[in-house]
Amino acid sequence: MKKRKSMHLVQKILCPLLLLSVAACGQQSAPANNSAQPAPAAETPAPAQETKQLKIGVVQIVEHPALDAARDGFISQLAKNGFEEGKQVVYDKQSAQGNMDTAIQIAQKFNSDKVDMILAIATPTAQAAAQTTSDIPILFTAVTDPVEAGLVKSMEKPEGNVTGTSDMNPVEEQLKLVKELKPEAKTVGIIYSSGEVNSKVQVDAAKAVSDKLGLAIHEAAVTSPTEVKQAAESMVGKVDAFYVPTDNLVVSSISAVLGVAESQKIPVIAGEENSVKSGAIATYGIDYTKLGEQTADMAAKILKGEAKPADMPVETQADMKLVINKKAAEKMGVTIPQAMLDRAGEVFEQ
């Protein structure tokens, strides 16, 4: 203790003297060119700013050409907006294989992985994602009626973390194709999944315009792909044409409907272009690749911080086109009027 007190006393006495001495020494040892400005200290280079690689979870209810086209259109167009796959963004692509429980599990995984955005393709997967997170931005596409599905408050102002593009069909224009191909047609059969809100919306839209078109709608609800063929066969002799809406379950099993239609010479009108490529006769509708691209443009604005889902109106596709499959018409015993061919936007020969 005594030693510490002694040291403290020494420091108390010597420190002022040392400070004076240092100051004096500083004046004495100043270089001749004292007027020159001291060289600035070298700056340590700032570390390069690393751009965060974003992660987008992609989930579709099932794999079929229309939904695949929407997904691929989204990815290619987002790259054109500066978010190239493998560079600025990575994708976690998942399919629920038609199972709602699986769709929910996928959405929960995206939420726990804290992805930067979710792209939900088709109504059930969009509903699963929306039920799972209210924080992650969700872009949907291939959803027919997002208000009826409970995804947004209104088409104009979603008011949440969800927005996207609707694939609502011009059902009336599509049913007019039935009368154009087969003027004597009186009844149209529609097979749809009872578990898809978007399908019921289209059935109701068909019923709403059927009287005006001189048609009666004969409907059959199914719950699994294995029921589609049986439902089509049950309509033979009762309907003059089939109408296949953008129902994911039925579209993924459309070969079953086409098989019955070709064997019984019943024309099939589809709700979208890829079903025509698969073997339906015609549609008047949207291009799913372009719909995916349109969704990507919306997503880019969110990723760049230029917009929020809550304020982004749900978009629809303005440009529709008539698509015809001549080979399918031959298989179903139908002659396509020349006037219809003349205004077609695309004609498949095979």
How would you characterize the overall build of this protein?
It contains 13 helices and 13 strands. It has 350 residues and is an alpha/beta fold. The strands form 3 sheets. The protein has a 6-stranded parallel beta sheet with strand order 2-1-3-4-5-11, with helices on both faces. It has a 4-stranded parallel beta sheet with strand order 7-6-8-9, sandwiched between helices. Strands 10-12-13 form a 3-stranded mixed beta sheet. α2 packs across α11. It is elongated, with a radius of gyration of 33 Å.
Write the layout of secondary structure elements.
Layout lengths: L1 H27 L25 E7 L4 H16 L8 E7 L4 H14 L3 E5 L1 H10 L5 E6 L18 E5 L4 H11 L5 E7 L3 H17 L2 E7 L5 H7 L6 E4 L3 H4 L2 H11 L3 E3 L2 H6 L3 E4 L2 H16 L11 E2 L4 E5 H6 L6 H5 L3 E3 L2
Helix pairs in contact: 2-11, 3-4, 5-6, 7-9
Core attributes:
alpha/beta, 19% strand, 350 residues, disordered N terminus, 43% helix, six-stranded parallel beta sheet, four-stranded parallel beta sheet, single chain
